[in-house]
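Aggregate trends can hide what the representation actually does to any particular protein. The sequence in question and its structure tokens are set out directly beneath this paragraph.
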Amino acid sequence: MHASMANLGGGAMRRSPRATPTWSLAWVWLSICALLLGSFALPARAADYTDGVAVSGSTATIWFKSNVATTWVDAHYSVNSGGQLNVRMTYSSANARWEQAVNGVASGTVLRFNFTYNNGNPAYDTPQETYTVGGTTPPPTSDTPDFGANVSIFDTATSIATIQSKLDAAFNGQLLSPTAQFGSQRHAFLFKPGSYNGVYANLGFYTAIAGLGQNPDDVTLSGTVNVDSGWNYGDQGNATQNFWRSAENLALIPNGGTNRWAVSQAAPMRRLHILGNLVLGPSNQGNGQGYASGGYIADTKVDGLIASGSQQQWYTRDSNLGNWYDGVWNMVFSGVVGGPATSFPSPPYTALATTPVSRDKPYLYVDSAGKYRVFVPSTRTNASGASWANGASAGTSIPMSQFYVAKPTDSTATLNAALAQGLNLFFTPGTYHLSDTIRVTRAGTVVLGIGFPTLVPDNGVNAMLVSDVDGVSIAGLLFDAGTVNSNALLSFGDTTSVVSHAGNPSSVQDVYFRIGGAVAGKATNSLVVNSNNVIIDHIWAWRADHGSQPTGWTINTADTGVLVNGNNVLATGLFVEHYQKFNVVWNGQGGRTIFFQNEMPYDPPSQAAWRADAIGYAAYKVGDSVTTHEAWGVGSYCYFNVNPSIHAAHAFEVPAVAGVRFHSALTVSLGGVGVIDHVINNTGGAAQGTATVPVNVINFP
């Protein structure tokens, strides 16, 4: 809806009956132009504005603060169930914002509002928001916020002994601990710009290490950022449970010239400059032990050699490498300068020269004045190489005063009130229990977590819903299903839409979903994408096969990990495991996946209990009506340890049409525990036998 002529000026104008002044005609003409432009308004731009509601006594002031050259703003609002009012807002010089007062409000009054504004000649529409008077209001924000007790911030004046003591305490508290993998501990270690000599960081569960420079080389650590086998209780011989840790936005000069990063799922390495070599396998690899199970690197530069070692699969995006060595089953590269060429399956390399669409994860940094900001990198098309390799990354810097810094004690009402005020959300480490859905309605909103903040929906609520708007970034979160079934943990759009977001897509990055393990969690779906053009950049959706609490077929239940109904959605780094039906269902047209890693559920008790009308569920299902879809570097494995006689008819189920294409697909039976009869539809032989040998399909069809 846009402003009507009756309300455009915000009040009646008194005119002489005999003459209309020239300035009045001009004002009316400009108003008509604004109205006409509003009739064809474009979606709001992400970084253009903030907005909200300020209440004083019985007056609520709807406000709009522009970050661009705005000369007029129209408010469209309703009070409770009343009709929509459309008014030209008044600019307040004292508050440096556009305002519209609503008088006579009381606690419980519901305001629904959105805006039309200009930025040069076009007009732009913002999405509708809702504000309830008397609801929870978050405290003031700051550019130097308190990040809480679980965040340690170091500068060059901090002694190395102090830094090392904090790093060691966090890791040693988890060493051979039977509870650490599903514990409540959360750690973020942040380094302000400068050089730090002699830092030896062993990273355990739920531990993040990051630099606070605007570019990786602003923070240099000399030492190690180490992940190895031998420390995790119950899995000392392998690195297959080295989950939930991260390293970001710093330069590393490795001790001895080589750094070790032997991780499995949910352990990204982003925006690093490694001035030396990198080894991705554990120190004990070989002789039937020392396995590692996959990982992710993006926007990174490694000057020397990368040896993948015992890594079964790996995905590297938009990076610069000196040389890549090794490969087990599935090594995938897109936009990697210095990476290997496609040679799948021997060596098992799949390479795309560029990444079709990518936007790197937002990150926290500190500016020259000591103020904290979040940098949101720009979207890149056909990207190749690290975004900062030839200069600073392009993007937008947002002051922390435009974020609400969340603590685990915050209620869901507080978080939603912050979003309704036009703030972004910054989650500090800890566990958050949600009594309601977190609702992200404003275009361009950033929801960013550090130190693996964990969101637990209580009483069966859906954890987070993102409206069908442009440019929302959701990053750095762990969704942990509650004990009462949720229909979905994170959704983009509540229904399918025809709106294109190609010019400013939303993204979900380093976001993890866990069904069971810490509690007997339940969720029908983990990630649901109804919006178009969303970028899914490194997620791990995991129905737990083990935990500190019991897991099993009827205990931690979950149908589907990723459900895509939107068109032109791109997944770069898709890890989805153990769901009880199709692990991925892709119904949207024009979908693309670059790298997929999957294990089917371990625990079907019988063939009929898993599925009565077919031979199991495929790991990855492309909808029957889809005519265009493409995937590169996709693998699915079975390990039916509850009933080794279980079969799956195939790992990938797709329509047999020319526009649906798969490249470098494989299946594996781990130790011959169960069988996958075919790779894609009826193409490819059976994965079976104790030799654990992949069955490969180079191209389909």
User: Anything to note?
Assistant: The chain is about 5% helix and 40% strand. The longest helix spans residues 22-39. The two ends are 48 Å apart (CA to CA).
